[in-house]
Design brief:
By secondary structure, this protein is mostly helical. The chain contains five helices and no strands. The model has no long low-confidence stretch (mean pLDDT 86).
Length: 138
């Protein structure tokens, strides 16, 4: 099995998370002006919840070594994206739940805790899927 570098795998996972979170924030911003976009949010909402574990699975599956650590690192990416998009949302004048540096740190801490809980099983599943494929190829 030809694998890609660990950095490329990490960029793929981070790109998945960033694109889903970006789409969510754009749709929320547009839904405040156009009501017809609101149904799209009902589709993106569950996708946003499962994006980090799916990204963790892909990163663990694609990484050449340290698969579980690489997949679990998606928890950090997802937490940073949550905090970053929340901060940008606040800076552009929209109401947010957490304001300022304290709010960013609170979102980061909560997001890191939650995403660590959901990314670890995704990383383990990716590791075992890659292990199974590797045994099958031999």
């Amino acid at each position: 099995m030809k694998s890609i570098s660990i950095w490329k795998a990490w960029l793929i996972g981070t790109g998945i998370i960033c694109s889903i979170y970006l789409a969510w924030n754009i749709c929320v911003l547009m839904a405040t002006k156009n009501a017809w976009i609101a149904p799209i949010l009902y589709v993106l909402y569950p996708i946003g919840w499962v994006a980090p574990p799916i990204a963790a699975f892909l990163v663990a599956y694609l990484a050449p070594k340290r698969k579980i650590l690489a997949g679990s690192s998606m928890a950090v990416s997802a937490a940073v994206m949550l905090g970053l998009f929340g901060d940008l949302w606040d800076r552009f004048g929209n109401g947010g739940d957490f304001h300022g540096l304290d709010g960013y740190m609170a979102v980061l801490a909560l997001g890191l805790t939650w995403n660590a809980l959901v990314c670890l099983p995704g990383a383990l599943a990716g590791y075992y899927a890659a292990l199974k494929k590797q045994r099958k190829d031999v």
